[in-house]
Request: fold
Amino acid sequence: MSQAKATTQKKSGFPWALVVIVSALVVSELIFHLVFGDRSHFIDDLKKEPVPGDYLGIVYKGGFIVPFLMTMFLTVITFSIERFLTITKAKGSGSLETFLQKTKTMLHNGDINSAIAECNKQKGSVANVVQAGLHKYQEMEKNTEFTTEQKVQNIQQEVEEATSLELPSLQQNLPILATIASVATLFALLGTVIGMIKAFAALATTGNPDPGALAAGISEALINTAIGIGTSAISILFYNYFTTMIDGLTYGIDEIGYSISQTFAATKK
Reply:
């Protein structure tokens, strides 16, 4: 079973994350230029001044940084949905707490076959790890060569190996969310600085300052700041939420793995 899982892991080497990011960039550029940059959102054909109260035109005035920030936002949303579905599936079809409690009860009663059947019913990453430990439990019961201590170590090792195969798939793409949480803020700062440079350049013109250029510069600065900070905040929230979910799964795996090995040690004394 472990070899089959390892093969499945190897087959998932396609760079889907890169595909998602590039696709998000293309979609963001199209939305920015074709939707936000549509002439209907501006007073003049040169797109210098957006229609008052038209937020799409106002966002377009945020400049070339906006599509990159939109790319990060779409990437965060896409990976957050994907991680939620993956981690929810890893928990199994029913309540994880109920499953773990049932399995421990069956272990204490020595009903290993029923515990394995419960794993097949629950499914998911946690159930896969528990099932691997239970199969090793039955294998060690029939083994006459190893000492009890060696059998317990074999059970623990099987649980650890099964866990090492399941957990990496749960943590996939989370580093991207963590990176965006920092990079989005930096891009927002870059957009803010560029906007303020344009605003001060408008103030520095000889004679009367150009109020339109001044407003455009300030607008660009504030729009980039708002989108960048909002994207960063959402990314941080989702990252912490998913890591908490994974920690809960890891705790459940550790708890049931300990119960399996200790139950075997207690019954074979």
In short: Residues 203 and 209 are 5 Å apart (CA to CA). The longest helix spans residues 211-267. The two ends are 29 Å apart (CA to CA).
